[in-house]
Here is the input.
Amino acid sequence: MAERDVLETDVLVVGGGPAGLAAAIRFKDLLDAHNAKAGSKLEASVMVVEKAAEFGAHNLSGAVLDPVSLQELCPDFDAKNAPVSTRVTGDRVYFLTENRSFRLPIVPPPLQNHGNRIISLNQLVKWLAGEAEKRGIDLLAGFPGAEVLYEGDRVVGVRTGDKGIDKHGNKKGNFEAGVDLRAKITILAEGARGSLTKSLVPRLGLDKGRHPQVYSIGIKELWEVPKGTLPRGEVIHTAGFPLEEDTFGGGFIYGFTDTLVSIGLVVGLDYKDPLLDPHGLFQRMKQHPLVKPLLEKGTMVRYGARTIGEGGWYSIPRPYADGVMLIGEAAGYLNPARLKGVHLALKTGMQAAETALEALLADDTSAAKLKAFDDRVRSSYVKDELWKTRNFHAAFKNGLWFALPQLGLQEITGGHGLEDPLEPSAGYAEMQTLARYWGGGLGKDSFERPKADGKLTFDRLTDVYNSGTKHDEDQPAHLHVADPNICETRCKEEFGNPCERFCPAAVYEMVPKGDDPKQERLQINFSNCVHCKTCDVMDPYQIITWVTPEGGGGPRYDDL
Ligand code: SF4
Here is the structure.
């Protein structure tokens, strides 16, 4: 057995995104305020571990930020030069057909962004990490949480990943065993489809009575364009093309600065067509007559992709247990109607911090005590917001045209609509076989990807290059396929190996197996992986498990 170092802390935050850093900052501020008062002082430490080489490197989002909770966390955030200075100046919403666009006469209320800011989540997280550092919080970058540590059903910390294992599983000269980080309270803030959260929730039965989480994939590029192409602060949302009516999602285009445009496509990971290719659809979106003129004189400078937890209120598991709380998108605190989760990540991080301090002062970190976190969520604007949109995503189950009247009714009935709750199914279960969806008339070659021209449209490998992704090649693959035989036989036959299409980074590839051209095997190009978690979510047989690779590997999402 490997010798492991053990580090102890009072509060351990796993994941240094907006939720995790907000939790750490709030905890330290409250602790200092408590200790500044006369009376008993509490000695307590807080530590944040992050799998990326630098804080912010794995964070991307659209993003339009509602600053409400940043204001609570750092009331002087503008004076402190938080990178949120682009105020929304205009909102437009279009319905697109293949060649035309129709501007909606009014912007639906959830998409009205007056008072909000267009941001890069990467920049915001870097700034938050700086704020945490100023407060003396321990920040450990390059340390992925690989395993939850339990005593019985009580969470007592996290084991970080080993370093220096070669691709055959042998120790290299630089081997370092992962560290056992033991904590009185562990806060999981891994973002959507966190690998620790994924194993912890069913083990502790936190999803009992809850709906399955439903995800989307968001694919984004950052473009440098000539000044005047799109006004700074302009927000455009699109529905329709390039998505079929039976697929949830839409596009976004934001004037981030005078010369930077953020553009992306969100595709529901509960689509039916096994041949659907989110990356290919995004390339088609850029060719639309509304979009192309915004980009054609520009240059793509960054690319990334990430899953988004879209299920809403009914999909959030019980967010606490003995010694642990779940915050931000790890739990599913995201408003799918507003396309916003950063403000809820910040807020739930702060609420977990308030609960953690109370628990430490009472020397009681049991589930009964940490339930106060859930109570805080339920009595705050987090629940207000999510309750009104609790049936939003599920309304799309039968396609866009069935959804629209339901959404209108939900808007005027406080989220109830015709039926409450609307029951969603797990997204992967919606994917239909080739025979069912295409009736056997069309084959694997029926999908036409736009040919990448290297200027407006790109192939996956070019995009991966622009994501800045790097992994040491001499390590075990961090995508575990439980039974590759299924890929070669059943999946090929039934679904046409959809992993080749839903992965936005060309990780999965069916390659010839021996001399027989009909025989193929799965090749996993794991070093391309941008950590989006789409495969873990959408694989129709649920045999793919994403685990943390060696710390520091992955994308580098500067300015995304
Ligand atoms: Fe995303 Fe999975 Fe592809 Fe990695 S392998 S980029 S997690 S779909």
The two ends are 41 Å apart (CA to CA). The mean pLDDT is 96. The chain has 16 helices and 24 strands. Residues 352 and 436 are 46 Å apart (CA to CA).
